[in-house]
Amino acid sequence: MTDVMVFTDLDGSLLDHETYAFDAALPALEALAQAGIRVSVVSSKTRAEIMPLVAQLKLEGPIIAENGAIIAYADGTIDSAGHIDDIREALNTLPEAVRAAIKGFGDMSVTEVSELTGLDETAATLAAKREASEPFLWSGEGVPDTDLLADKGFYIIRGGRFYHLIPRRDKAEAIMRVIAQNNKSDVQIWALGDGPNDVSMLLAADRGALICNPHLQVTAQLPSTHTLYLTKQVGPSGWAEAIFTFLAEKKT
Ligand SMILES: [Mg+2]
């Protein structure tokens, strides 16, 4: 029988966008555990933020943090696509007017991160522990040029709350690295997410679910040929809806 690996975004997907609650997803997580299907978190969050949650939910798959820039395996191996110091250094090479429009986590106090994310100070401290990517707010005109720092090897993607300056490895590429490490030829990938930064991994998966998020207009970005499952419910309820749909498909 084909092995399945589930890769999921957190905020707005497995976790409620506002409250970070996940209760509505628990029955689906239990069903996956019973089917012996491992779940990997793929998030813009840091490893420090994801680890307690993964332990709490007993998720056994490798952790993909910071939008793919960091992969953490169960044996303690860390596969990092870049280093935060290089990214912050690259930011400072931008023309003054552009640099002034960018406010990265490195430019903020923990209190500011806390206010912007709605996380308490303890959680915000973990969120600020960046290893290989920098979330930022943009106060310039329109949207920032995604290739602003391409010559330095970094590019910009849009997440749910922030833009992210990341090394050249996105969520989809990180998943492919995990699959390659897995040494199993016949693995089916299910991926779930709600943001523009999830689209590449959803389209690369064998079965992808776009979790409904009224704050984001992601469906407009999808190619007309996509076969993603679009959930009716938002957040963890939509997550459970997609997982139960995929589990039912697998049985037939
Ligand atoms: Mg999200």
TrEMBL record:
Keyword terms: Hydrolase, Magnesium, Metal-binding
InterPro entries xrefs: HAD-like_sf (IPR036412), HAD-SF-IIB-MPGP (IPR006381), HAD-SF_hydro_IIB (IPR006379), HAD_sf (IPR023214)
Keyword Metal-binding: yes
Pfam families: Hydrolase_3 (PF08282)
GO cellular component, one term: cytosol
PANTHER family associated with the record: HAD SUPERFAMILY HYDROLASE-LIKE, TYPE 3, PHOSPHOSERINE PHOSPHATASE
Name of the protein in its database record: Mannosyl-3-phosphoglycerate phosphatase
